[in-house]
Design goal:
single chain, 188 residues, mainly alpha, 65% helix, 0% strand
Length: 188
């Protein structure tokens, strides 16, 4: 259950990335340029260049300010979206719908995911997963949109690179939709 997490305060890295990060507290041009600059003060402040992550926090700060409840609800909602996208991805690749739904439910409710949802700054992990999964879903039919989502995922958290081997595995295993077209695009 995510209920107790919704009441949590800013802790640990939440302070550096969110409550104590002056570049996300206002969406003026100077802060936006600082967030987008890979060598700028926002990247130096977090010791990490992840502009989409900081832009998401900036948007959340504009909505919720220092009220942690809203930030936590955002994480839970995005986690639910990522779980739903996983169900769709499983189903697309011939996993029976009941099994796909079970897999998504396990991902949604497993205690190991509570940390990523409860820790406000981990919005980056949840958003990167949702964006990368969305890219995998779009890839067969909308390769340009898939590429854009994948780029956004990488600019959220570099671990979104997990989507490359997943896509390659789908191609090698002959994923049902568009496998020949993807092989041709990849030169195979």
């Amino acid at each position: 259950s995510y209920g107790p997490a919704l009441r949590g305060a800013f802790v640990s890295d939440d302070i550096g990335y969110v409550s104590g990060n002056p570049w996300i507290h206002s969406l003026g041009w100077s802060n936006l340029l600082a967030i987008l600059d890979p060598t700028g003060p926002a990247a130096a402040h977090t010791a990490n260049y992840a502009p989409v992550h900081l832009l998401l926090h900036a948007g959340a700060w504009q909505l919720f300010g220092p009220n942690t409840f809203g930030h936590h609800v955002l994480n839970v909602g995005l986690h639910a979206l990522a779980s739903g996208l996983l169900v769709a991805l499983f189903a697309r690749h011939a996993v029976p719908f009941a099994a796909a739904l079970l897999g998504g439910a396990i991902f949604l409710l497993h205690p190991a995911n509570v940390e990523a949802v409860a820790w406000i700054f981990q919005l980056k992990s949840i958003a990167a997963l949702a964006l990368a999964t969305g890219a995998l879903l779009l890839e067969p039919r909308r390769p340009l949109a898939a590429t854009a989502l994948f780029a956004l995922a990488l600019l959220t958290k570099i671990q979104a690179a997990f989507a490359w081997p997943v896509l390659l595995l789908a191609i090698v295993c002959g994923a049902p939709e568009g496998a020949r077209a993807r092989r041709a695009r990849l030169g195979g």
